[in-house]
Write a structure and sequence with these properties.
Keywords: Membrane, Transmembrane, Transmembrane helix. This protein is an all-alpha fold. The chain is built from 8 helices and no strands.
């Protein structure tokens, strides 16, 4: 039996639900602790050159990039929370699906953790970028941050899209009596 097929049975459903709930609570509680969120942190994640990084930090000023540094540190436990939540949702949706939709979900099941790994690398780059004007980052650091952020978001969006489609198909099956 392949590892993806094993995910149909393990972890057991009550454990999977509990992990998913814990992940959701973590996302809510940890996410609230980030002093810099939304568009500001996205701007930092997608600086592709040292020049863009320095221009952003200059526009922010020391107080804001200190707050951004704190947000990046808080993001490390947030990664574990969102990866747990998203994997749980993908697995629950896959288990409720059949055929190709189920196979797709099983194939996506570990993508949240791959996204999390990319997020860790991205965060390490962001911490280096936030060293700022005193020690400007090199092009490899800014390019790696942007590349990891892009790949991470593609994985997260793919999983979220899958959950929406699979949940919709499941709900439609309930309505139709299947």
């Amino acid at each position: 039996m392949s590892w993806s097929r094993k995910l149909l049975e393990s972890p057991k459903k009550p454990v999977l639900i509990a992990l998913t709930v814990v992940g959701a609570l973590g996302v809510l509680l940890i996410g609230r602790q980030m002093p810099v969120r939304g568009g500001d942190i996205l701007a930092l994640e997608f600086v592709w050159t040292p020049e863009q990084a320095l221009a952003l930090l200059d526009a922010w000023g020391p107080l804001k990039y200190d707050a951004a540094r704190m947000s990046v540190w808080v993001d490390f436990p947030f990664i574990a929370a969102y990866a747990t939540l998203l994997m749980g949702l993908v697995l629950l949706a896959a288990r409720a699906s059949r055929g190709g939709l189920q196979r797709l979900g099983l194939g996506l099941a570990l993508v949240p953790w791959l996204a999390g790994l990319l997020d860790v690398v991205e965060n390490l780059c962001l911490l280096r970028i936030l060293d700022g004007p005193a020690d400007p980052p090199g092009p490899l650091v800014t390019m790696l941050a942007g590349t990891c952020a892009t790949a991470k978001f593609l994985g997260v969006i793919a999983c979220a899209g899958y959950v929406l489609v699979a949940t919709g198909a499941w709900a439609l099956g309930l309505v139709r009596g299947r």
